[in-house]
Amino acid sequence: MSTILIDGCAIAFKPGDNILRAALEADVEIPHFCYHAALDSLGACRLCAVEIKPKNSNEAPRLTMACLEPAKEGLEVSVSAAAAQQVRRHVIELLMINHPHDCPICDEGGECHLQEMTVTCGPPYRRYRGRKRTFTNQDLGPLIHHEMNRCITCYRCTRFYQDYALGNDLGAMRLRNEVYFGRFQDGPLESPFAGNLVEICPTGVFTDALFRQRFARAWDLNTAPSICPHCSVGCNTLPGARDGTLRRVRSRAHPELNRWFICDRGRYGHQYSEHCARLLSPRVSGENTSYHKALNAATTRIKTTQNCIGGIGSAREDLEGNTMLQALLNEVGGVFTAFNDPALEAATIAAVSWLQNSAGAPSLIEMEQIDAALIIGDLTAHAPMIDLALRQAYRKGAELTLFHSSPTPLAQFTTSAITVPPREMYAKLSHLCTLINALLAGRDISDDPMAVIAKSLIKARQPLLIGTIETLTATDASVLAKLAIALGPNARLTYALSGPNAYGSALLAPEGNAMQILESVETGKIKTLIVAGNDPFSDPRFGLRWRAACRNLNTLIVLDCILTATAEAADILFPVAAWTERGGTFVNYEGRAQSFLPVFHRPEYLPSAADVIADLAKYLECSQQDVLSVLQDTFPDFQVPAPGTLGSPIPVSLPPISDSPSAGSPLLSSNNSTWQTALMSWYGDETLASFAPGLTSLAPTTIAMIEQATATATGIVDGSKIRLRGSADSVVLPVQLNQNIAAGTVGIGRNVLVRLGLGHGDPIELEKVS
């Protein structure tokens, strides 16, 4: 590898590196402000001044910016040269002229890059005694606080927001020494990645508004390596806690996944752990009790219903909790699943089976390198960081094709975006697969409207096919895998799954068990149901059946860290530790197992779900072993990765899944309705995040969205009201017309689907009200 000399020290560099990047990767500090490894070099701050020694001794040394100077073999660089030090002192002095000097009350205190560079580079005092330039701050919503007077004009914020995240509602305004970074008017930032401004800003211009409410200095926070629990990507995070409460969540670098960033759901969804309605004491028959009395009550009721027991784990429960629940049920003659929705169970198991029997899913860093992609569904809502990775691919020239049923922000970056009704997705994907096979066989398909898409995927060097599992059926997931096979070995396949441990849950849950448990509860064959980290009562399609079926139970035992509808109905309720209050393992969408550590412990005793189940097994006098032994028995070749490492795959094989149209759990049968539902999500739409007030305050208004041509044909106008009828209830909603929703579908939010008792793609009755 080639090297450069920095103050006499040999530093290796990679092709394309500049001096600053090479130095920082070798842990050699060169002062800087505007440089960030994720952003292109700009040279705006002038702080990374270095001196280059000329090869000709008759020439004078050259002063340059390290972030703009390419690293070359044999280059001799001096950071400590007097001329370079003088430039840095002048830069700092100029920046501090208008700085408010409010370090004692600044939220950035203790982790402020400006503070560090001022101490490092000088000068030690300020000579300027004139009047300071000041700005008026903006209200940027409930998540980000704006303090413009601290700005040093490094342009990091706009380079991330506009150039990297491709947002368009924050920018640089005005000229010269009055450059202002903000919006044209007050209001919440629209990007689902806006919270990264808090970390990317080297001063305190953008700070965490939620953290300000219960602020603590950085050096007072307890931290530990953790994994985000809000989707299947598995972003690495660094939560901070103090005095027994969680205060904030920040990103933790992972070179193959999230790298330096996380989405706003991952950053601000943590408020659920401090929610005012969170239970901290066990309940039996609605009364608070001690942990041991709750265990005794659960033991007594389980013993009276031996061999009539079912258990539901969860995609948001860690691998340890799900595995322990399955082992306990095996001991007492029960049935286990990790899903309350049979259709979601079938789709997830199908997706994981295809991934386990293929080359595996690509990492986020690999997704950034693809040159074509076929995207099925709304990634922004279900896996925001995959959305961000595909935006990087788009910036590099990738052609993105989108099949979607409801609006999604990613559509604006696609070459082709096609709206497809949910019930027609299988036919659309099958037709595309037929076109690709025909094209590979040399047949002419130029007359077909989707010929351009087929040709784009075939000519791509690294095509990617990705589906959002929550809005796909098992057959949709399988035909997407068939498409990847048809495109050849260079094609990559992946799915955005429904929770942080959905992959691990699919490895444990036999297909068909969700429906078996539901029907057994309905018929009275199951008398005791144990639910760990799940909420079957709030399932859009099957919630009504679960609520009715559970009236037949003798006992409903729930283990959860939030007060869901199912938890409220529990006969015995065990409050368990949130993800920052326990250790565990999540298996992300790639099949990468990643472990996390507890960040803090509350004064109240809050065990993990795995601990509760282990204690319950002891009370039942089962032969069940400890968590690590049970994991080893379930996954013999798997070693739990150390927290803070890159993670490791679980070596398990699943049988191939049939891709026939009848495979898996079908959508609800048509009731002769010409309309069908389409789930409209947003980036804060997730079970845990729904208990985060700061995030939910940004939720979109409740409407019914209809495609304009379809609405016109049926006499529906924008702003009018319609009545929607489902299997559980009816609701009246205002109409919003939108071209980005499939014809014949009604786009509605998850809360409305739950109320109506319908799932994505189910038939719905529509009636004009006004």
UniProtKB/TrEMBL annotation:
Cofactor or coenzyme needed: [2Fe-2S] cluster; [4Fe-4S] cluster
Highest rank taxon of the organism: Bacteria
4Fe-4S Mo/W bis-MGD-type domain mapped to chain residues: 221-277
Organism: Nitrosomonas aestuarii
GO CC annotation: membrane
One GO term of the biological process aspect: ATP synthesis coupled electron transport
Annotated protein name in UniProt: NADH-quinone oxidoreductase
Swiss-Prot/TrEMBL catalytic activity: a quinone + NADH + 5 H(+)(in) = a quinol + NAD(+) + 4 H(+)(out)
Domain 2Fe-2S ferredoxin-type: 1-83
Family as reported in the entry's similarity comment: Belongs to the complex I 75 kDa subunit family.
General function of this protein: NDH-1 shuttles electrons from NADH, via FMN and iron-sulfur (Fe-S) centers, to quinones in the respiratory chain. Couples the redox reaction to proton translocation (for every two electrons transferred, four hydrogen ions are translocated across the cytoplasmic membrane), and thus conserves the redox energy in a proton gradient.
Molecular functions (GO terms): 2 iron, 2 sulfur cluster binding; 4 iron, 4 sulfur cluster binding; metal ion binding; NADH dehydrogenase (ubiquinone) activity; NADH dehydrogenase activity; quinone binding
First and last residue of the signal peptide: none
Enzyme class, broadest EC rank: translocase
EC code: 7.1.1.-
Subcellular location: Membrane
CDD domains in the cross-refs: fer2
Keywords: 2Fe-2S, 4Fe-4S, Iron, Iron-sulfur, Membrane, Metal-binding, NAD, Quinone, Translocase, Ubiquinone
Domain (4Fe-4S His(Cys)3-ligated-type): residue spans on this chain: 83-122
PROSITE patterns hit by this protein: 2FE2S_FER_2, 4FE4S_HC3, 4FE4S_MOW_BIS_MGD, COMPLEX1_75K_1, COMPLEX1_75K_2, COMPLEX1_75K_3
Cofactor: record remark: Binds 1 [2Fe-2S] cluster per subunit.
